[in-house]
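We modelled the chain as a single entity of 382 amino acids. Its sequence is:
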Amino acid sequence: MPEAYIVEALRSPVGRRGGGLSALHPNDLGGRILAALVERTGIDPAAVDDVIFGCVGQMGAQSANVARNAWLSAGLPESVPATTVDRQCGSAQQAIHFAAQAVLSGTQDLVIAGGLEVMSRVPIASPAVVGQREGMGFPYDGEGWRNRYGDQEISQFRGAELIAEKWSVSREDMEELALDSHQRALAAIDDGAFTAEIVPVDGLAADEGPRPDSSLEKMAGLKPLREGGRITAAVSSQISDGACALLLASEQAVRTHGLTPLARIQAMAVVGSDPVFMLTGPIPATEAVLAKAGVEIDDVDLFEVNEAFASVVLAWLKETGAPWPKTNVLGGAIALGHPLGATGARLMTTMLHHLGRTGGRYGLQTMCEGGGMANATLVERL
């Protein structure tokens, strides 16, 4: 059976909106990480068969195939193609899947996967404008859509609230998880846990999101994002900037280029789920990827579950029975931030490096996605 290996994984620090990365053009941010990956691995960049990047806000500075533009901006060979994919928040994880599938099929041997997002330039819509049908048009509309789902609000913010209600997740539960996320991330930074995976960019060498002054008292004083709701900014992922890149290789490429893999892709899954709840996909995706691999959840050493909202992770924990002490152990998107098109690769990068430090065998990554979808990936450390 063919194998798909992950040879190296690097990322930028995650910058706050308006922070240390906000003035950098997305092409240059992505290009810095791509160049660093080529340098770290020592590969001939002309030997790369393809570059696949996730990006959600493919407009303005991030339009016109930002993966290709980032590669060229780094001064890398024009002979290497690139493409940009959008599976909403899971775009970079899907890029990894596409790269692995190319290697597993035998059609390509060296593929770079990753993602980027400079949300300071292309921010996500606020709850106030969700449902607005003006301007460029509202995606959840049209005769067929209305016949199936009616005229109800479709948004991640409503989905997070619906999940909290269905799984009886209290605001206090979510605030405790959020505080834990910040404390874990701050401890990881202090311990140098991210040093090997981060490429400093323009003097920024550490993630800007974690807040040392976070407290349950401060969180309790915030207004909900929706009238009468439980979700506040404190239990939601941060609007962020960042980029990430991984090198995937076939067994032949590992031998030919003298590479030492970090891990192999053990199994991959992608599922659809209720688009109204929108964010429940990680639950069936986890079940699917474990079934494909023939692995039990108790066999997994490390979980990365994207903290789009605290309610998403808490519902996933309840349904899967996975232990919180093995989940998001270095903090999640509530603390570290969520640059949409890059986060799927950021989670994988952090998971791989932590498995390497701790000697764990299996790591499982999953994340919710707009439209009601989710990817899940199981890797085995080598």
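As a brief sanity check on the tokenised model: Residues 7 and 260 are 6 Å apart (CA to CA). Residues 171-191 form the longest helix (21 residues).
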